[in-house]
Every structure is written in structure tokens, then in C-alpha cells.
Queue: 2 jobs
Job 1
Amino acid sequence: MSSEQEQQQEAQQTNEQGQPEQQDNLISRLPESSQRLHPDSIKVSRITVAFVSLIIMLVPTVVALLSESYLIIAIGVAAGLIVFTIGFIWAKKSYDYTWYWLADEGLYIQSGVWWRKKTLIPFNRVQHTDVAQGPLERKYELGKLVTHTAGTRDASVSLDGILLDTAHELRSVLQEEGESDAV
Amino acid sequence: MQSEVQANRLHKISPLFILFENIKKLIFPIVLALFSTRSSSWEWFALGFALIISLGAIIQYRFYRYWLEGDKIRVQEGIFFRNVRQVPYKKIQNLNLVQSPLHRLFGVVKVQLESASGGKPEAVINVIDMQAVKVLKHKINDEEEQLNEEVAQPKDSILSLSFGEIVRYGMITNRGLVAVAIFFGFIMQFMDDQIERLITNYISQFTQWIDGLVSSIEFENGWLYYTLITIIGVVSAIIALWLLSIAMALLKFHGFVLVKNKDKLQATMGLLTRLQATIPMTRIQTLTIHESLLHRWFKRIGITIETAGGVNNEQQGVSMKQVVPVAPNGMRHELLKEIQGDVDWEAIEWQPINQKGWRRVLKVMVLIGLVITAPLALWNLYAYPIGFVIWLIYSVYYSKAYVKGAGYHINGQLVAFKDGVIFTKYTFVRLPKTQTITVKESPFDRRHGMASLVIDTAGAMVGAHHINIPYLDLGVAIAIKDRISDNIKGTKFNW
């Protein structure tokens, strides 16, 4: 597992427009235990984007057919295609840059392609956790783990695109650790 | 439903106050409805409205009941959809009292109970008499506390504001500016030709009056004349604004007294409407010291706090964010010690952020400057570059001052962050109150090997100053994160 991880990390670093490997940034400091989302989550977000861009194309088309203006159709289709292309690329990108791992102190989630952030949710700050699953995710047996804290901006931190079983596992770890810590 | 405890009901005068509250809530829709519908039947609409809301008030009063049980208060309201709410005394964070002149006339008071759930008050008791309040307070505060607690004497208060201090508060904070902005925003909605003409008429009358004043001193119509007019205009505007701000400050803070009662802070304030708010000191999530340019001129500071949940929106209830509206800077440590005595305030040494960050601040300032000085080009082609250069000089000063002034501190008890050039703010979070810790890295951070560190707490208001330390070396940011996470490992969060 760990060797695979390292390979992934190396691939990661060469991905970054050939920047030197020793460059110090959040990604280069990922621990060995860090996990990626499930690869199927790329498919899920691409299908979602496809739906959204279809709607973006359909609405102007209906409007255009009613008002008989074909320029609107062109604009709508162009907008839909742009949204789809960006979404399609972004799905892979955001997968590439999202990691999570458990440490002694809590659950770490690293995300963001350009604006990256690493969030630590300490075990003993977890108020409660949700595991959720949408219809599309059900098809790929994926799920979402939502961790609720007493905070405000991070009142709920979600980890979207992991296997449903993984979500349940993480949830039970978070609960156990939280309880054992809360002496 | 039956319990051995006797049910308490609202005071008999309550429907009147409930009615007022309902009217207050509905006044905007009603006014708008009256303005938009110019039909002759609007009187009937108004009458119907009034009838419905007054009936509603009486019904609300009739069906409201509360019980003071052993360890919790139970509140029941509603007719068809009966709502029963139980709030354990221990969970009640703030107990706030509101007493307007009308309340005082009847010797009653409105009570708000706030718990950590945030948003709106957990329970509002509108209205009960003073005796009932005493009983309620006795129940909520510890049992051992005796009923004979007197109204706190100013002598054992932490802070009481004199008239002079409140005047200073008004001048420093300039809340009048906000009021004027809201007023004009409101007026704009109803602006039609007639009102506009009226206002421009007033303005031109005023300028004519100043004009007369100035020209009576026999000046030629030169540049001196115009500068004098501008100066008089600006000065009178500032004075008017200050007077308004002072008046507003007096309304809110007249007779402000902050008392420490065991582990609770209790503040009493207000000229017409008296407010009394209590806050358990252990529930303070963040503490912020405000020291703006005007504060520094007057050698004053202000202290605000954020509590978990509670009422974050001032419109929804009494909020006691401003524990110290204004106080002499010399009292800083003394006051902090009173509010949070377990922290060694004098031992705080500020660590600098990466000083190279000033170039990055400057770049942002230049971008902002390009945009906000652009409208000058419409007025005069040369004004744009001149305005931009002035902005640039200020930006260089600002950027250097910002990175020099910003800093952080972390010890075993708390983490602190200060920043700001004109409005300097110091925020302190005790470590057990931290929630999530985030290290952020923007593309620009990455280029310079920097990062920022953000700490989330309960009850953080949107836009309020919080721990968000920018321009840190990545290693430093991660070290701070590790230190905090090590420290809170094994400590349970206690609201």
C-alpha cells in the first residue's frame, strides 16, 4: 500500500509542471498513510457535470423554441459545452489533489487544486457524524462522510467520494476515538 | 404533562407587549402594502391586520406557560401546534433582561434565555414581573446563591462608564455613520421627484447659508473661498456625525456597569430601554481587543467577546458582545485579568509573521488601487495617475506597517493573533476552545513557500476578527498547528 502511495505521490510532483521535487508545499508534506478518494468518484462528478451542462443547454433551447431565436440556442450549447469541459477536467484534478488520513490527533483532509488547504478535525472535537449517499453514488457504492463540529465556518466538514464501507469505518473510528479521548 | 411544579404564566399586561412586538415585526410589510395599494379600501385592510395581530397577541399570552422544574425550565406555547421546550439550567448560557420605559411603567421585564444552539434565543418570556425574574434567576444560577442578592453596587464593578467615556465611545466608533447610511438607503426606496426636490432644496439652502457666512467675511471668489467652503462643510458634517454617534452611544450605554458575579459577567446598560445581560465566563470562545486609530488618539481600547451559539444577530435579541465598550488603555491587563483570570496576560510576546509578505500585500493593494481610482479618469484624465500615485505611496506605507504590526502568540493556554494598521485588533482563543485547525496555501503562498493558519471556534461571527494568521513560512504554520493539536489532544471540548 505504502509503495503504491509513494508512486502516486511522485507522479503527483512531476505532474506539477515539472517543478523540482524537493519543493516544500502542503502536497510534499503528505504522510505515508494518506489515502486518496475512490477513483469512481471521478466518474460520479463527471456524470453530475454532464447533467448540469445538459440542463444549461436544455433551458435556453426551450426558451429559444418558444421565442424562435436561434442565437440563444447557440449561446446555451456553447455555455453547456464549456461547463462540461471544465467540469470534466476539474473532476480529475480535484481527485488528484484530495487526500485524507487518520493520525493520533484526528482526521486530516487535504483538498483544493489551486487554493489548497489541510484541515484537521481533532477526534475530541467531533460532535456527530453523518454518512450520506446519493442515487448516483449508490450505483458505484460510494458515500460521503460529514463530520460535524461545534465550530462555525467548519461546522460540518465533508469527505465526498469514498467507498460507503470506508465512510462507515472512518465514522466508527471517529466515534471511538472521540469517546476514549473525552475522559 | 402533569408535574408537581406549579405552572407559571405571563404577567397580565403581556398581551400589550406581545402586540407591540408583532406590530414591530409587521410594520414594514404593512407600510409597504399601504404605499403600494392606493385603493380606498386600505383602511379596512389595516383594521383587519390590527385585529388579527391583537387577537394573536392575546391568544399567545393565554397559551404560554412555563415550569421551573428541578434541573430544567419547561416552556409551553401554541394552540394547535403545541410546542414544549425543555432547557436544562446548566445549558443556559445567557440570561438577558430587557426593560423599556413602558416595561418600567408596569414594573415588568422581558426575559431571554440563550443556550449554545445559536441563532435565536432558546426561550423568550415576554413579560413577567420582577419577583418572577428573581425566582427564575435564583433557579438558573446556582441554588446556593441566596435570594437576597442586591442590585450590584457600582463600587464592586469591574467597569462603569462615565458620561465622558460614553462620549468618547461615540466619537471613536462613529456608529452614526452606519445609521446615516441605513437612513439614506431607506429613503432611496421611497425617493420620488417631490422628495428629491425637497432634499436638494434643503442642501442648497444650507450651502447658501454657509456661502453667506463665508462671503460676509469678504472673500474673493477664488480658490481660498472654495477650500474654506469645503472645510466648513466637512467639519460640520463630522461634528453632526459625532453628535449623532454620541447620542446613539448614550441611548445604548448610559449607566453601563459591568459586574463580576462568581464566574459570570453581568452588564447593565441603556438610557431608555434598560438591558441586563449575563454571560458565564467559561463560555467565552474568543476575546478581541479593538484598538483603532481613534482609540489610540484617545488612549482607549474596546473589548468584545464571542460566546458559543447565543444570539449572533443583534436584531434577534440582546447580545452582549461588547463586554468593555471603551476603557482606558492602561486598564487593559487589569480588565483582561478580570474577564479571564487564568491567563497570564502580561507574558504574551508577539511573534512576527514573515516580513517578506509586505511585497504581497503591496501587490494586492496596487490591484485594488487600479480599480478604485479608475473612476477619477472620468472626472479628469490627469486625476487618475495622480490619485493612483497617492494610493501607491499609502500602499507602501500600509504594506510595511501591516506585516510589521501583524503577529501571533501561542503558549500552553491560548493562541493569539493581531493585525490591522488603522483598525488594529487582537484576538485570543483559549486552546480548549479551538475546533478545527486549517493550514491554507494559496498559489501565491506556494510560490513563496508560505501558508496561513486558520482556527475555527464555536460562535464565530461571519466577518468578525478571528485567528487567521497570514504570511507564515509553511514550516512555521505546520509547527503552530502541531502545537495546538498536541495541546488539545485528550481535552474534551466544554461549551
Note: Residues 107 and 121 of chain A are 5 Å apart (CA to CA).
Job 2
Amino acid sequence: MDIRPIFSTLRRHKTAAALIVIEIALACAIICNAIYLIDRRLDHMSRPSGTVEAEILRIQMPSIDETASVDRRAAVERDLAALRTLPGVRHVATVTQIPYGNSSSTSGVRLSPDQPNNTIVASGYLGSEDLLDTFGLKLVSGRRFNPDEFLDMADVESAGDSARVPAVIINSAMAERLFPGKDAVGQHIYSWGSAPIPIVGVVETLAMPTDNTGPGNATMLLPIRDASNGINYVIRTDPAQRRQVLDAAVATLKQIDPDRIAVNADLMSDLREKYYREDRAMAMLLVVVCIALLVVTALGIVGLASFWVQQRSKQIGIRRALGATRSQILRYFQVENFLLATIGIVLGMLLAYGLNQLLMSRYELGRLPLVYLPIGAVVLWLLGQVAVYWPARRAASVPPAVATRSI
Amino acid sequence: MFGYYLQLALRSFRNSKVLTALMVLAIALGIGASMTTLTVFHVLSGDPIPDKSDRLFYVQLDAASMHGYTSGEEPDRNITRFDAENLLREARGARQAMMSGGFVAVAPDDNRPAFFTDARYTSSDFFPMFDAPLAHGRAWTAEDDASRARVAVISAETNQKVFGGGDSTGKTLRVNGADFRVVGVLGPWMPTPRFWDLSLDRFNSLESVFVPFSTAIEQKLSRMGSMNCWGDSGGDPNALSAPCTWVQYWVELPASTDAAAYRDYLTSYSDQQRTAGRFERPTNVRLRDVPALLDHQKIVPSDVRLQLWLAIGFLVVCLVNTVGLLLAKSLRRASEIGVRRALGASRRAIFAQFLVEAGAIGVAGGVVGLGLALLGLWAVRQNPSSYAALAQLDTTMLLTTFALSIVASLLAGLLPAWRAMQVTPAIQLKSQ
């Protein structure tokens, strides 16, 4: 089909054509970026924690009376022993923080004792003996902690700078950042106190509790038993009966000490769900905005195109009288829309790039991957064709007699 | 003339109902989306204490060791307890308070179950300094601070929950197993954001219980919020001499112009501390008033800012759409314009007529858009974020809705009206 006549017609309707182009360009720019943002959110939400989330329960039940002089260490041991005997419980441990929990602590990590600045900042999970199995972490290198490596937090704290932590297990992200291409096991880090801490093992994945606590995803496990009031108890159980186990665990702890309150008692899968709720809401909002944009743009094209058809009905009649078939007229409007959409899309891609630059500078967003541009282009080409179909059908049904009517 | 143009506009709407509905819908969608996000933005970026936000200052000192020092870096958000107590003792401002967040178990004095809740450990000036409205009783005094009195001021909500409301001063509140005497009950109070401690959730509700800082230390009540230590704290990071920053320090100055003098005082204090060997880093102090602090801490969540940009983009698309539809409509009426022009209407009159028509669409779009914005805000309130509950439309935003809608539609109407004005009557009359 010859597109020259289409161009010469468009040149005579510059404003209307320009409006369609602008509308498509704007929609293209916003949609490309929105799809990218949606994808980023989904990507973020699929971040693995490295733990067997479906099998883990977390309970925090601090005692009301903190001033009471109880032996915290013995109390925690008694709690753990009681939890271990519950039916359905596979592993139990204490830990200072958990993935998707609302608190997080980080420590600086150095590679030599007299280094002035931290090499990296890592988030430390301080846990009791059975933590590795309770979390279900996968050891990819080295070994687990030996039973004699565990320390009590109270001892570590009172030792201050002279504390010696005998071992640390780090995640592979941290291993890769500290010792790229080398085996981290057998190396030393400096983080707690001034003594070197030997790395005894590397786990495949262990996420930070929250992902706004610093760059990277460096985490480490330390063999330190914290017995502070309200320490996290984590339980690994059979996923089929996790709710019953959770209720039973809370009841058991309450029975041991009625003076305590369940501040947190959750399935880890629920915590995950809650943790990403805002991301999910934002992704949904972006989807809604994209759909609304597409609808508005389509309505705009329908409105302008039908006006256009009406204005040119005489021209169409003449073409029909001169022998053009209905499908040729239909095709004419479809090609015309395709051309306008193409110009709009090209402009839109430039605009999308500009918008991305703006977002990058303001929101620490990455560069828009080029793959999103063709997605936006295809969507808008299809949209244009769908929107113009109805007005084009009307144009095709203009009878040839119109050509002679008003003369 | 305005009435006549309006009449013409209404007649024209009747003639092309679908097109008019499309335009109203497009404007309404754009307005609804942008007003929803603008309202959220407006609520979150508001001034929590407008009367004196330029006289309240947040103090930061750089007390950390040389370890990890980078020149020109922002000092830690909090200061050490040691420095806070020094500054408080020297009391160079009109009012000053040191504070920290806390987490305590509160038990009513009867047998109802206890619950854990947020607390704030602070000094006596906190209440007059932040204009805290006391419904009953009074704030505690500097003597209470000094004597580590077991006194508490409770929020209206806590008063309702624990004592069933009313004047509860003199009653006993059990906090972490110790008896505290209620000296004051706050009235309804919800500074948004909760600006005095930005390391905690800024849009959460007010703390439930306020107790003297000194008492909280003595009772070993548990602390909440960010803490940064750079040395050996000897097992107790809350100790007076611990090398840990965890205390927020606020000062009220008689006038905003006194800030320079107070900054000089902080500088000389820092210099003194360095001479004494406590501070290692070069003097690096910050003194920000409330708006500057909120701005520096990027108080509006980046999601909300992103949504605002998105909504504005959406509004622009809706406007372009309306321009197109209005243009289509005005050109379709070329012959009508021709007749009006031939009967003596001036170009200006045609222009005015079409602008009135666009404005009328704007008003209709504003009404529908307001409905959509209310719906949008309702949707925002269903969100899990802590600021969700704050998303309410106020009068300012209500008026802004209509202003924005009319301005937007007039802008959209300019090009079509200008084109309509250009119609040559002779040609139109000939083709009739």
C-alpha cells in the first residue's frame, strides 16, 4: 500500500495528528517506566531468605517484670527444653534477629586489626546451638559450629574489647565480597572485640533481616547465646501443623512463666507476606495506573479518529466512487494509525529514557533495560489498532454516493 | 454573556453526550489520581508544630572515635548520654530536653492483663517545649527529673485503655513491675510526623507513656531506637560514659535568629570536649530546626513521591486527551461557529464561549474527580503503611481539587478555542 497519500493527508491535519502522537508518546514513556518499576518490585519480593520459611515459627515473649533478678540464662534453657518436647517441633533455637523481622543490627567487619575503616558492614545473627538446622540453612563450605564454641552474650558483653569469639559462619555473598574467588573458610575477620574471628563455614544464602540496613547482603552467624528478655525463639516444625505448634508453644511458655506476654508469635511465611505488603500494594497501583492510561489513550484515539472519519467522509466517498474497496479504506485508517503510533512510540522511547534519567537521579533507580522499550511499543501498536478499528469500520461503510451528495 | 455561553455549552453537551462524558471522565480520572497522591503528600510533608517549628532545634555532635572517620560526613543522628546530660545541665536554650524511645510493659492496677507498649524517656521541658496539651494534671518538674521520681504522663489513649478515661492523676500505673504515679494525662495529640525521634516510625501514633529519663535509667527500662557504639561499653551501652550515641536532644531558642549563637556554643562545647580528650574528631556540629530536619531526613516516603510523579504524568495524558476531544468537537461545530460569526459574534466572543464550555467540563470533572479522590484515599487507607490512616481530605485539598480541575480544563480548552476562533464564516456558510 502506498503511504504517500496518508502522509499528505496528515500534513493537512497537523494538530489532530500531533495530539495523537503526543498522547501515545506520553503513554509509552510512562508505561515503559511503570512496567520496569513493577518488575523491580516483583524482583525485590522474590528475594530468598535462605531459610525454610514455611517451616519456621517465631515467638517473642518478654517477661513483664524486667527488674526481677532471675537467672535469664537458666530461664531460656528451660524454655528451649520445654519447647523441644512439644509434638511436631523439630528444632528450636534462640536468635537475636530473623529475616522479615522488624529489627536489625549491623557490625563493621575488617580484615586486619589496625585497619581504620570497615571493609564491609554485615548483619550478625547471634544464635544458640541449633540455629543452623532451625533456619534450615545450606552449608556450602566448611563446617558447623562445635558445641564448645558457643559463648554467653553476658560474658561477651562484660569482656568488652577483649572478647574472643571462636568462630563465625558467613553467607556466600559476604564471602564473595571479602575474598573474591578464594575459599573464605580458614580466613579471619575482625568485628567483635579486637581478636581475629576465624571463618569456619559458608552458608549459601541468608538474607539480612530488612533490606534497608546497608548495601550488599552480607550476613554472618555468631555462636553467641543471647538470653535477654524477649529474645526470639525460633522453632522449625512440620508445615502441616505449624499453627497448632505455634499455639501450643505460646501456651507452654505462658505456663512456665505466667508473667510474660506474647509480643510476637508468627509464622515466618506470614511475616514475609507482611514484609512485602507495601511493595505488593505499589505494584498493584502501578498496574492500575497502566491500565487506566491505556484506556484513556484508547478513548482519545477513538474520539479523534471518529471525528476525523466524519470530517473526511466526503473524501472517503470519492475514493469509494473511484473504485476503492471497503477493505482498502479500512486498511488506510489502520496504516494511518500505525504510522502515528510509530512516531509516538519513537518519541515515547526518548521520553521514557529521559523519565528514567529523572527517576534514576531522584530515587536511586537503575537504568531502564532496553528490553522494556519493545514491550511498550508492542502494547501501544496493538492499542492503536484496537482503538482505531471501530472508527475505521465506520469509514469503510461510507457509501460512494456521499461523494455526490452535497454538490 | 457568561450565562448565555453556559447555556450554549449545556446545549452542546446535550448534542454530543458520549464525547462530553468521555472528556469529563478523562479530566476526572486525572484529577482523582493526582488529588489522591497530592493529599497523601500534603499530609506527610506538613509542619508538625507550625507555631514554633523555626525555634525548635535538633542537636547533633560528632563524638565518635577517629575509626572510620571521613571528613565532612554527617555526625551521628543521636548524641551520647554524657553530652546530653552536659548540655541539659548547662541549659543554654529557653527550654531543652533529652530523650530516648522505650518499650515497656504497662499493667493496670486491677487484675486486667498487662500489655507492652511504646514509651518515651525524657526530661521535664519536653511537654511545654513541644506544646503537649495536658487534659489533666501537669507535666513532671525538673525536681522530679533530679530525684528520679517514679512519675508518668500518659497519652489520652492509654488513659482510656488503662483507667477508662477521666482524670487519672494520682493513680498508680505499673510499668515493668514498678509503681509509677500518674501526674498528667495528655489530651488528643498527634503531631504528624512524630518528629522528635526520626529513627522510629515517623507516622506511628504518639507514645503511650512518658517517664523521666533519669527514672527510666534507674529502673533499667528497655530502650528502643537506633544506637551506635564505637568502643568498649563495658557491658552497659546505656551507662553514662558508654561510647554510644542513642539520645535525642532538642532545644527551644527564644527566636530563630538565636541559632547562630547556640551553634557557636555547641562548637565551643565540642572544642572543650576535644581538649579534654573525649572527642577525637574535628568539631562537627549540626543544629537544624524542624523543617530543615524533616527535609534532611527525607520525611516523605519515596514511594509517595514516586506516586505523585506518576499521578501528575497521568493527569498530563488525560489533559492531552481532553485537548484532542475538545478539538474534535469544536471543529465539528465549524458551521455553527460560521453562523454565529456571520450574525456578528466577534472572535473574542467565540473564544470566550469555548473556554466557558471547557471550564464547565472542568467543574463536572472536578466533582467526579473529587469522588474518585475520596475513593482513592479510601484505598490508600486500606494500605498497610503506617501513614495510611492519615490520608484524609481537608478543606484546602478540597478547594485545590476544584481549582486544579478548572485550571486544567481551561488549559486544555485554549487550543480548541483558539482554533474555533479562526473559523472563517464565509467558507462555512458556503458549504451549508
Note: The mean pLDDT of chain B is 89.
